[in-house]
Amino acid sequence: MNAAPRSDLAVKLAGAAVYGMDLDLPGMLWAALVPAPVAHGRIRSVDLAPARALPGVVAVGAEDLASLLPRGGGDPDRPIFPTGEVAYRNQPLAAVAAPSLREARRAAAAVRVDVEPLPALIDIETAFPDWPDAHAPPSPYVIAHVHARHGDVAAAFDTADRVVEETYRTASVHQVALEPHACVATVTGDRWYVQTCTQTPFGVREDVATLLGLPEESVVVEGTWVGGGFGGKGSSLLEPFALLLSRASRRPVRLASDYRQEFELGRTTLPAVIRLATAVKDSHIVGRRVRLLLDVGSSLPGRDFATGYSIGFLLGPYRTSTFEVEGYGIRTNKPPFGPHRAPFAPQCAFALESHLDEVGRTVGLDPDAFRAAHLWREGDTTALGQRVGPFGLATALEQARALARRWRAAAAPGHGVGIGLGFWSTSTGAGGEVRLVLTPTVLRIVQAEREIGSGSVLRGLAAVAERVFALPPDRVRVEYANTAEAPFDSGVFGSRTLGALGRAIVEAGEKMLGTLAERLGAPGPVRLVVEGDELVVLSGSIRRPVRDLLNSEERTPGLVATGRHYAKSNTIDEQRVVTGTFYPYTDFTGAAHVAEVSVDRETGAVRVERYAAFQDAGTVVDLPTARAQIEGGIAMGLGIALTEEAVWSDDGRFQNAHLLDYRIPTLGEVPPPEVTFVEGFPGAGPFGAKGLGEPPIIPVPATIAAAVRAASGAHVTDLPISAERVARALKLL
Amino acid sequence: MPPFELVTPATVDEAIASLRAIAGSGPAVIAGGTDLLLDIDDGRTAPGRVVSLRRLPWRTLDWTDGALTVGSTLPLRSLEDDPDLPRRLPGLWQSVHAVGSVALRHRATLGGNLGRAAPASDLIPMLLALDAEVDLVGPDGSRRLSVDAFIRSSRRTTLAPGELIRSVRVPESRPSAFLWQRVRPANDISQIAVAVAFSPTRPGWSIAVGGMPPRPVLLTDVARRLGHGRPSEELLRDACDRASREVGLASDQRASEEYRRRLVGTLLGRAVRAVVASGEVPS
Question: Looking at the complex, does the CB of residue B185 fall below 8 Å from at least one CB of chain A?
């Protein structure tokens, strides 16, 4: 285990890191978007003439695409500017650029927009009022439908000793990265170049090419430093508009959100209603029914994914052989649904864990023991027929229960201790590659991703290489290149960075060490050591400086080896699928959390007193970075649990699009957590590592709900668990 | 942020003159700017001229003549850090401590908080309960009036054109308490705030409630029912019920009306008990 400092810290502390927000190029224009004034409506006209009449203003709308784009546009299902109907409030109808931000905003306001308002659909339950009833007529707003089952569910429920049925509601949450979306586009000839703060440079390239109808090779995406992603910077948002304006103006064009726009245009996770029913016989779960009504906003791409991926989290990390799940993605007049750190898994875990807590209590069992009895072990089969690999959650739960017993024994009156569980599957995306370059003095890792703040790129990838080559941190450099120069990678998301790129480093490293062994003429494995400034290759008594092993073409840049990692395909049992697309999980990770909270019995106010996490981590590659992920995940999870909620008005307005009223936790609400890693259940990453970006956020709302119930008896079924909701559950109102 | 002319007068007379010069077209006065700048940034107000008070000699704090006098431009953090405040006016210390964050309190001022007259101000309820007064200075000289008379409604005061808040005078020493409830404890706006003070000279109770438009209010009738010393539990319960029934409240995205009523009763009971527990209230 390494404990090297992160190489980004000095740069950031000195203010030398250039984020998307900081870009300022000579001759650059500033851009603003023309927002739709209603959540739903028929577009009569968008008149750009008043904006164009202003000095220095360039404006682009739907009518200009034919002249600006080589093929006149891209994907007809995802037009850059809508021409028929407005799908959500603030949807961009046109874009303008001017010599200053003030002039750009004035020009955007000058555009004459004529939209005939139509009734907006905001609340998913009004779109599908009869939905929990299996015989409900289909809703025209359902744009994604997934359905799977296995076993004789009806018989299981008919013959059960007890059936517990509940409804949970979850809130819309936003990623709240400190840096809003920001980019600068510079189009010259057929090179569409954009600098942007993104989690997925190659994802933006693909998206921009699709939306604008360009060949991928002509789009070059240059990542900047990223002031936090959390899922919100995973595909293009502002880049196509900036590129269009740059093409039209022949100047670099900057487009960035202010924080209000970040809320209004960004990709929030939207509300859901979850219906859970569990049949119990002889203290064991014999049948499950799960129904999900998910608001997918105006999403088109990704709607099946949002619905089909989420629903597995409602079955949870529990043996479930007889079940039926059905999910509906409802189109509403809100912006497209967006992923938020472990998209929708914390909300699902909240509903499922709280429900199993209720089921355990109903049948008179300790809820923690009840869950332990049903938990997956290695070799089990998931509800959708996947085999469970090495999985440390049962061990994590054992340790969590031991701690909870100690905390309970010492808890003050009005305090309660609860446990919550969650699982995750490290995503591999579409794979990733790295290029290692060995010079006489350092090892360079060239790859596509920028550090987004978690440390997974600059520290995580460096730590893998340090371990493969047994090199000290000052001899390993993680370097970044744009999409024209770097090898392909899917992006920094899905807890995949260390897993996928780390494996690619291992592969490239082994190749490189093989080459060095060959050139050294060594009979066995070689290793690198530092002697003065030089790197020296050693095998037994044979030793030569790296410098002497490079041939003439390798003097610059050095000895190159590439490695790639593409996930093994993983399948589910299609026999269990009735309709829709479900997604296989690839690499199971689990976490058990413990919280001690106090609840004010007169006001319902909740205070988190203590918090602990037991994280199935496979192998920890870099302890400080791993710990930071767990601490950050818990802090974000406490927001979902207690205070965060985007409030949508009936006319589709994000009413609290401000950091005062959209309340992320402050340090005062986050007790320093105790973090324990459960190792020994290896994952698919390098040295058996498992991804840690998302797992730590998943159990948090469930854990808080359990602790609140233990402290006060309040069984809160809606997120966030506000004091007012607790007060209602305690019948104070 | 739209541009404005920033004026930084060096004397009180200059300040008054620079306000008068464009009276009517809405010059704004800035002290810490923690509230005004948000409004300008969000386009809720667009003053052509902003008069800064930072050069005026009003960053003062003074305990004399049985009162605390706080200069209107003293940062709240300096008030909070006064070593005597927690003992002599505990409720005022609690309300200052409740405002925003430490960073914000280094800029925000008592004068600014009063002048901006936000309905959810945490300071105004406590100043009301403590019978505080404001000293104003303007083109027609100086005047003193109660905070209750100074605050008119949401974002409205009785400040005349060209007039400035010079200082705030808080009679001491009064056992007092300030309690609040928020969605997020730190850096948030109170759903309900309750300020309670006991005046040993009159003698009697004062109660003020904040957290709802149009402005923080004194509950004079409820306070009178608590009597002239320590109330019985029965009397206190009755007062809490009455306060929670009678105070004008509504629902918004921070809390429902129903929940706010619950909070008024609960926090009032706790605040009165806290003041009694100070041992300074006669039986």
Answer: yes
Q: Which residues of A touch B (CB under 8 A)?
A: 102, 260, 602-603, 605, 607, 642-643, 647, 655-656, 660-661, 663, 665-669, 722-724, 727, 732-733
With an 8 Å Cβ cutoff, are B185 and A669 in contact? yes
3-class DSSP string for A667-713:
HHHCCCCEEEEEECCCCCCHHHCCCCCCHHHCCHHHHHHHHHHHHHC
Q: So what CATH class is A10-37+40-119+180-265?
A: alpha beta
Is B165 exposed, middle or buried, given 0-12, 13-18 or 19+ CB atoms closer than 10 A?
buried
Contact B210, B247 (CB under 8 A): no
Please name the residue that has the structure tokens 């949807």. A91
Residues of chain B with C-beta less than 8 angstroms from the C-beta of A602:
266
User: Residue written as tokens 């906003």?
Assistant: A297
B259 lies within 8 A of chain A by CB: yes
The tokens for A448 are 């596509």
Tell me which of 3.50.50.60, 3.10.180.10, 3.40.50.280, 3.30.390.50 is the CATH number of domain B176-277: 3.30.390.50
> Nearest C-alpha of chain B: how many angstroms from A379?
44
pTM greater than 0.90: yes
Nearest CA in chain B to A725: B259
Q: Please report which helix (H) or strand (E) contains residue A86, including its range.
A: strand A85-86
**Could you tell me the mean pLDDT of each successive run of 10 residues in chain A, 733 residues long?**
74 94 97 98 98 98 97 91 96 98 97 98 92 82 93 97 97 96 97 98 97 97 96 94 98 96 90 96 94 89 74 91 94 92 95 97 92 94 92 97 98 97 84 96 97 95 96 96 96 92 97 96 91 95 94 90 85 91 86 98 97 97 96 98 96 94 94 97 94 97 98 98 98 95
Query: Looking at residue A338, what is its pLDDT?
Result: 87
Q: Dig out the tokens for A546 from the structure.
A: 């790296």
Nearest-Cα distance to chain A for B130, in Å, is 26
Number of neighbours of residue A189 by Cβ within 10 angstroms? 6
Report whether A156 contacts A279 (CB < 8 A): yes
Rg (CA), chain B: 19
Rounded-to-10 torsion of CA A98, A100, A103, A107: 30
- Calculate helix-pair angle for A623-638, A700-712, nearest 10 degrees: 60
What three-state secondary structure class fits A250?
A: coil
Q: Which of A605, A656, A666 sits opposite B187 (nearest CB)?
A: A666
pLDDT tens string B182-205:
999 988 999 999 999 999 988 899
DSSP β-ladder status, A588-599 and A476-480: unpaired
Between chain A and chain B, the number of residue pairs with CB atoms below 8 A apart is 49
Q: Any idea which fold A272-426+586-729 has?
A: Aldehyde Oxidoreductase; domain 4 (3.30.365)
Which residues share a beta bridge with B17? none
Distances (CA, A) of A534 to A440, A472, A473, A547, A670: 6, 13, 15, 8, 47
Q: Which CATH number fits the domain A429-561, given the four candidates 3.60.21.10, 3.10.100.10, 3.30.365.10, 1.10.490.10?
A: 3.30.365.10
